[in-house]
Every structure is written in structure tokens, then in C-alpha cells.
Design brief:
By secondary structure, the chain is α/β, with parallel strands linked by helices. Strands 1, 2, 3, 4, 5, 6, 14, 15, 16, 17, 18 and 19 form a twelve-stranded mixed β-sheet that branches.
């Protein structure tokens, strides 16, 4: 069996200029980065602004398991299948972070015969967007410490600086550090730390910005800390937003690539869904809706994280209205949610599928609350039995969602035709999209609504610090913002060990951070961290450059 990178390397991609021409993108609207990837500049959207939008399709999944669910693979395969059916479709995805690429999760370009290419470039440096975000973030960090060193005219309280440093790598040793060591000329000593770039508010701002002016405005609104009187200090007070915008100018343009079968893909932005809002950029999604009749996008991790944030944050802030939602599941994932060990997931066990299907059932039920038609996609494995598949089908029938089998990993677009036909039918059904909560609710009411309606919690418990921070944000005029709950991706609860459909639990909010530039309030639940660590055997140990000096090996 060929590896993902072997399949991708054997492909013969079309020149990116041909993919652009297929979409109706003009030569002057394209900024090529080599032969097979390019950026689309703002002139394209400006020209197409009055064109009618296509239909927006969201792909999400059950809670992730060690066996993998194939959400991105399904998204890519669905786009390829749409093209097989003669539909004008485009995919809109997030960019991979180097942290997971060298860690345990892997890349974000799909797999098998449902991949986006050039796979190795996408999973490594791509067009440099994430590096630009890292640089802009750390420019602000440097300006904060320099301001203190040069006299501290804003009277920043070094004990209450909220803005950390950033890097696009998993490095647990940098979670908590001390800066300013080495004497008078090296800055003031204070506690600091790093977060992974995908968790940076700069990433969230770039992904939610409408254009360059909105980007600059949002950057200026980012809260960096408090002065000695307890007054909030923002990025605009340091006048850093101009230089940061300049660094991010090119990064704000969406990247155009293609699938193995030549289906266009806009890949742009990469916030994590267990830490941030987990969606690609608003600019890329809006452009996709103008360029094709069907725009297929995904949201990170399970539907309780990425999909909830897509629907309650991104759609709310950008005015998007999805026509259909696809929730991806596997027989293996459902067996895992029934308590079956990873080593035994290939062993036929229809009873375990029935028991674990409560996780899929909960996600379908949740998504239907938004008023959008839902299709379930069963990502097939060769070990799946007909009895196990029937158990999934019966679950979907109880939930009122059509089930479609997907074999895109092995067969590409041809293996996704059944799913594409189901999605096309769903897109013709009435859709009455609405977020799960109203803007007028308090921040606590919003958190409690998500906890109750999406996670299935009995209530919410707040630490003293979180309670004070939520109260302060409400009183300071930020109560109208949506909430972004950061929690484990492995469970509907904040405890990764509670699989299936847990009940009778409390959601524990331990910390609250105001992302005033992005436009949401982050509530951290459980033990979620904004700087991951590498596993015992990181993927980096298997990645190498061959003796020819050009071929990359071991990349999935």
C-alpha cells in the first residue's frame, strides 16, 4: 500500500494558472508561488462581490479517536466527487501547523486518493502564512518589552501582561519562562511563556478579518495587559498594529492549490478548534462562495468544537449561512467510543458499534438544532462488516439523517459519489440557519447554553479567576461577543476519558481570556493547554530527506 506522500508524489498536477482559469480568476488576480500554488489577491473578490453566492457545505465529525476519522480526507473526496457529477465545486481548508506535522496528529491535506497537493509543501512551509503570523505576534511581544525598557510611558504592569510569545512548534519547555535575564541592558525580568501559533489571537484575527483595513483595526483592538491602575492596555496604545499589518499583508491573501484530481482548493489560516475557533479564513470562504456553485469547508476536531464555533462564531461574525452539514464517522471510532481498545478496533463487533453510536447520535442531534440539513458520512475501512454498517445506518435513521458511505481514501472522487449525491439532496432541502444562542445573552448564559445544548452538561462551574474575568468582560462592554470554549477534543465533556455520550457532568471553566481583536471571549475548560508537547515518538523521527537531496520521506 502506498503512503500518502508516495501517492502525492506520483500525481501530475495541473499548472496553478489552469486551475485559476477554470475558476474564472484572471491572470492579474493571481500571485504565483512556483508552478503549483498561488495566492489570490483582493482584486478578485472586489470584481466578484456582486456575484450570487454558491451553497456552503460544512464538514465536521464525531469526537476524534486514535484510529482517525478522515474528516479532511472526506472533505477533499467530496469536492472531487462533486466534480465527477459535473458540479462546479471548490474546497476551503485550513493550513497545517508544523507542531502537529512533527508531533502525532500529522498534516492537514487529506489522505490516500483524496489529498490536496503539493502535499509536502503544504505540510511544511507552504506560502509562509503561518511564519508571517508568528512574526507579527512576536513583533508585538518585542514592542511590549521594548516599551517597558524605554521608560514605560503607558505604565504597563509587568505582572499583568497577558500577551505571550508564539512559535509554530510543539515545545512544552516554553510554556512558562522568564525573560529579561542578564542585567540592565537586557530588559526587565518578568514571567512569560509561549503559545503555539495556531492559538495566537493574531491567527484568529487574520481568519476573521474582512480585508486589510479590518485586519489592522482588529489587531489594534487586541488586549495586551493592564497598567498599574488596572486600566486595559491594547495593541493600538503601543501603535504596533501598522507594522503588524504590513507583515501580514501577503498572508491575508488566500492560497490556491488543487486536489489529486484537479479540484480547486483555497487553503488559508489554521486556528486549532480545541484552543481557538478552528475554521479557515472568512476571506477564503467568501471567495469560494463567489467562485463556485458549491463551497465545501471543514471545521476542526469534533462537531462539539469546530462545528459549534463555525456556526456560533464564524457564521455569526461573517454573515454566513450553510446549506448542509456533513458529520463524518467511522465504525472504528464508534467502537472506540464504546470502550473498545485501539488494538481491537479492527475486530468485528456490531454490538460495540451500537453502543458507541450514541456519540454520533448526539452530534447529529446537536447540529440539527441549528436548522440546517445534516448528512452522515461513514468513512469506510476494509475491516467494516455489513452488520456494523447496518448498526450505523439504524442510528442515523433514528436521528433523521441520511447515511452515505464514503470510500474516497481508496477510490478518490469515484468513492465519494454516493456522499455527494446525498449532500446535493440535502442542499435542496429548506434550511433555516440560526446560532444556538442570541447575542443578547450574558457571557455566562452563552457558556451555559453551549455546555447544556452541545456538550450535554448539567451545569457549569467556574474558578474564582474565571468568574471574575467573565464578570469584568461583561461590565466592560464585551458581553455581546460570542464565546469560544477551549476544551479537550476527545470527549463531549472536558474530561478526555469520558467517551460516548456522557451525562450528569459539570463543565469546569478555569480561565477566561478576552480576544477583543478577534471578537470573542475564550473560556478554557479542563486541562487544555495552548502550547502542546511532542509525544514519546514524534513524527519528526520518521521524516527525512533522501540522498538525492530533494525527495522527502516519512511524511505520512
Amino acid at each position: 500500500m502506498l503512503s500518502d506522500i508516495e501517492i502525492a508524489s506520483a500525481a501530475i498536477p495541473c499548472p496553478i494558472t489552469e486551475i485559476a482559469e477554470q475558476l474564472g480568476i484572471r491572470t492579474e488576480e493571481l500571485e504565483p508561488y512556483g508552478r503549483f500554488k498561488a495566492k489570490v489577491n483582493p482584486a478578485c473578490f472586489a470584481r466578484l462581490r456582486e456575484r450570487k453566492d454558491g451553497k456552503l457545505i460544512l464538514v465536521t465529525a464525531v469526537n476524534p479517536t486514535p484510529a482517525g476519522e478522515g474528516k479532511t480526507t472526506t472533505t477533499v473526496g467530496l469536492g472531487q466527487a462533486m466534480a465527477k457529477l459535473g458540479k462546479k465545486a471548490i474546497i476551503a481548508l485550513r493550513e497545517p501547523s508544523l507542531g502537529p506535522v512533527f508531533g502525532v496528529k500529522g498534516g492537514a491535506a487529506g489522505g490516500g486518493y483524496a489529498q490536496v497537493i503539493p502535499m509536502e509543501e503544504i505540510n511544511l512551509h507552504f506560502t509562509g502564512d503561518i511564519h508571517a503570523i508568528t512574526t507579527a505576534h512576536n513583533l508585538l511581544s518585542a514592542m511590549i518589552d521594548n516599551h517597558i525598557q524605554q521608560g514605560n510611558a503607558l505604565r504597563l504592569d509587568a505582572r499583568r501582561i497577558l500577551w505571550k510569545r508564539s512559535m509554530d512548534m510543539n515545545d512544552r519547555a516554553l510554556r512558562h519562562i522568564v525573560v529579561g535575564l542578564g542585567g540592565k541592558t537586557n530588559g526587565f525580568m518578568r514571567e512569560d511563556g509561549f503559545m503555539i501559533t495556531a492559538a495566537s489571537e493574531v491567527m484568529a484575527v487574520l481568519c476573521l478579518a474582512e480585508d486589510t483595513l479590518d485586519l489592522k483595526h482588529r489587531l489594534g483592538n487586541m488586549l495586551i495587559g493592564y497598567d498599574l491602575d488596572g486600566k486595559a492596555v491594547y495593541c493600538r496604545d503601543l501603535k504596533a498594529q501598522g507594522a503588524m499589518s504590513a507583515v501580514l499583508r501577503d498572508a491575508l491573501m488566500p492560497n490556491l492549490v488543487q486536489t489529486l484530481e484537479g479540484t480547486p482548493c483555497l487553503m488559508h489560516g489554521g486556528p486549532f478548534a480545541n484552543i481557538a475557533h478552528g475554521c479557515n479564513s472568512v476571506i477564503a470562504t467568501r471567495l469560494a462562495l463567489k467562485l463556485a456553485d458549491y463551497a465545501i469547508t471543514e471545521a476542526g476536531f469534533g462537531a462539539d468544537l469546530g462545528a459549534e464555533k463555525f456556526l456560533d462564531i464564524k457564521c455569526r461574525l461573517a454573515g454566513l449561512k450553510p446549506s448542509a452539514i456533513v458529520v463524518v464517522a467511522t465504525v472504528r471510532a464508534l467502537k472506540y467510543n464504546a470502550g473498545i481498545a485501539k488494538a481491537d478496533l479492527a475486530v468485528p463487533n456490531a454490538q460495540a458499534v451500537k453502543e458507541g453510536a450514541v456519540n454520533l447520535e448526539k452530534h447529529i442531534s446537536n447540529l440539527r438544532k441549528y436548522g440546517v440539513p445534516v448528512v452522515a458520512a461513514l468513512n469506510r475501512f476494509g475491516t467494516d462488516t455489513e452488520e456494523e454498517i447496518q448498526a450505523v445506518r439504524e442510528c442515523c435513521e433514528r436521528c433523521g439523517a441520511e447515511l452515505a458511505l464514503s470510500d474516497v481514501f481508496a477510490r478518490g472522487g469515484e468513492g465519494g459519489v454516493e456522499l455527494a449525491e446525498a449532500v446535493l439532496r440535502a442542499c435542496e432541502q429548506p434550511s433555516d440557519f440560526h446560532p444556538i444562542y442570541e447575542d443578547s445573552l450574558t457571557l455566562k448564559q452563552k457558556v451555559e447554553t453551549v455546555a447544556r445544548e452541545i456538550y450535554g452538561a448539567d451545569g457549569v462551574e467556574y474558578s474564582n479567576e474565571a468568574n471574575k474575568a467573565l464578570t469584568a468582560a461583561q461590565e466592560d462592554g464585551f458581553g455581546g461577543l460570542p464565546v469560544c470554549i477551549a476544551k479537550t477534543q476527545y470527549s463531549l465533556s472536558d474530561d478526555p476519558k469520558l467517551l460516548g455520550r456522557p451525562e450528569g457532568f459539570k463543565l469546569h471553566i478555569r480561565e477566561v481570556r478576552l480576544s477583543s481583536g478577534a471578537g470573542f471571549v475564550v473560556c478554557l475548560a479542563g486541562e487544555i493547554m495552548t502550547m502542546p508537547g511532542l509525544p514519546k515518538h514524534p513524527a519528526a523521527l520518521d521524516i527525512d530527506l533522501a540522498e538525492d537531496g530533494n525527495t522527502i520521506t516519512g511524511l505520512f
